[in-house]
Amino acid sequence: MKHLTTLAALLAGVAFAGSAMACETTLRSSDTHPDGYPTVEAVKAMAKEVEAKTDGRICIEVFPSAQLGEEKDTIEQTQFGVIDMVRASFGTFNDIVPETQLFSLPYLFRSTEHMHNVLDGPIGDEVATAFASHDLVALAYYDGGSRSFYNSKHPVTKIEDLSGMKFRVMQNDVFVDMMSALGANATPMPYGEVYSSIQTGVIDGAENNWPSYDSSGHFEVAKYYTLDQHLMVPELVAMSQKTWDGLSAEDQEVIKAAATMSEAVERQLWADQEKASEEKVKAAGSEIVSEIDKAPFIEAMKPVYDKYVTTPEAKDLVKRIQETQ
C-alpha cells in the first residue's frame, strides 16, 4: 500500500508539472479585493477562457487581497512591466490618466445602464486610447457600484433634508465640494472610523454602495439609506504595454475577447452581490428611499462642474457622456 501511495503521489506530481510546463507564458494579475469578490472572480473567468483558447500556453494567475500591493503601487508596477495586469478603480488612475478624472463627477451617470452604454461605446474606446500613452492597455470596464447616502437621523427624500448634516466622504476635493453644494458638511476620515463616528454622533452618516453599506455594518448605526446614486466610478482591468507588446497578434485578440467576456461576468456577479446586500439590510430594518427626484441634486452640482470641468475638451466629453442614451 505504501508503494501505491508513493506512486500516486509521484504521478500527481508529474501531472502537476506537466500542467505547469504547458503554460509557456504566465501573466500575474493584481487585485486589492479579496478572493470571491466580483472583480477577482471575473478575472479568473478571463484566465480560464485564455487558457482554453491558447491550449494552455498562456495562463493568468490572479493575486487577490493586495498580495502584490495597493492599487496605486500595482498600477505603477504594471506600467513598468513588473506586474502584467491590474484591476483598479478609475479613481486611482486620476493622477495618471487625466481623462479618468471626469468619471468622479457627481451625478455624471443617470443609471448603471447609462454608464455601461458610455463605456461600451465610442467614449469607452477614447478613454482606452488615453491609457496607451501611459504604458497601459485598457482591457475591460467593470462595475464598482453606485454610491448613495445613508444616515442615522432621518430619511432623505429631498435635497433640503441634507441641510447641515455631517457626512463622511473620502479625502477628495470633488466630494467635499459636492457635499457643500448639497448644503451638507463633508468630514473626510478613514473608512475604519465611520462606524464608531456615526454611533457616537461625530458624524450623521456616510455614502457608499450596497455591499459596503452591508459588509461594514454601517446599516446597524445608520438605517436610512437614500438611493440617489450620486457617484458611479468604473473599475478597470489593464495590462502592461510591455507585456502586451510581447504577445502575438493572435494572442492579443484572444485576451481582448476574454476580457470583454469577463465584463459580463463581473457585472452579473456585482448585481447579484448588490441584491443580496439589499435583502440583508432590509431584513435588518433599514429604511430605503428609492423614489427620489434627482433634478434638484443635479442642478446643485453646477458650481462643482464649473470648478472642475474647465477645458473645452473636458466640457465636450461631459456633454457627450450626458447625451449618450
From TrEMBL:
The keyword Signal applies. It comes from the Bacteria. The keyword Aminoacyl-tRNA synthetase does not apply. It is found in: Periplasm. Keywords: Periplasm, Signal. Residues 1-22 form the signal peptide. This is TRAP transporter substrate-binding protein. It comes from Rhodobacter lacus.
